[in-house]
Amino acid sequence: MQSETSRYQNFWGDVITKTKGFCTVLTKDDKLVMCRVKKSMYRQDERAKQLVVGDKVLVRFSEQDKQGLIVEIATRKSIFQRGSAKDGPPRTMGANLDLVGIVLSVKQPDFKVNLLFRFLLAANLGKVKPLVIINKVDLASKLEIDKVLTIIKSADLSYLLHSIDSHSSLLKLKACFKGKRVLLVGLSGVGKTSLLNHLFPVLNLKTGEINLKISKGRHITTLARMMCLENDYQIIDTPGIKEFKPYVLNKNLIGQEFSPFSRFIGDCRIKDCQHLTEPVCGVKEAILAGKLLAEIHQSYQNIWETS
Questions:
Q1: So what's the pLDDT on residue 206?
Q2: Superfamily grouping for domain 79-237
Q3: Residues 8-64 pLDDT 10s
Q4: For the chain, which terminus, N or C, has the lower number of CB atoms within 10 Å?
Q5: What pTM was estimated for this model as a whole?
Q6: Cβ contacts of 166 within 8 Å, gap of 6 or more
Q7: Based on the number of CB atoms within 10 Å of its own CB, is 117 exposed (0-12), middle (13-18) or buried (19 or more)?
Q8: So what CATH class is 251-306?
Q9: Whether CATH 3.40.50.720 fits 4-73
């Protein structure tokens, strides 16, 4: 009679796709295993209800059924979350990330300041390093590009410019992504999928077109998936979005976690200053001194008022 231990193998792996009821786990020896979550975990661990791409999980694999059962989820070192439309639980878009690539464009679709800083706050709150990727710069004028860069530089953000015909920007992006788990986020039609095709032609992913009348794209990527490429790259591509609200558990943390303000909050008189109406605010003084654009503070206020 076959023993319990011989019928099952236990191993750790990473979730690379997730659909209703099932997920695909990549093992350390690069094998793909279809898994489901052990039912008792839904009572024991809230994360089991929202298992996400990037989660590290312990799998009990059945040799007989050729299927795995997820019995444990490791502690997440970082996350990227968005709020739900009706103030419900957060939607976690990825876990155990090293970098969030915030993909934006100057035109087609138009650059949206508020969206940039909403993505940024989600990265700040989830303890993930952000990288702003300005795509499609070949479609914009130098004046339009400079206007966007003025905002990004004032916020002290790392960024890269990319166009379809720029080999040097591809090399820079690959250098930034190498050895890291990267989550890509952006508006529908901003060119995330095309960007991945340029970085890794072997993918040959389907891309969409922009509706020029409304400057918006169509959803082509329909679910988050992690692609492990050339041994050194783990890229999580997410469905394009039309709007984004960062998940904020404690509104009082926004002012402390919003990274464009980090250089100036030491000059605030009040310890938990929210940089709105408080007296002697280092952030507002920085704006008056020309060290920070008022437009960034306006985006911050917009996030505060809608959180």
A1: 72
A2: P-loop containing nucleotide triphosphate hydrolases (3.40.50.300)
A3: 889 999 999 988 778 999 999 889 999 998 887 777 777 767 889 999 999 999 888
A4: N
A5: 0.90
A6: 138
A7: buried
A8: mainly alpha
A9: no
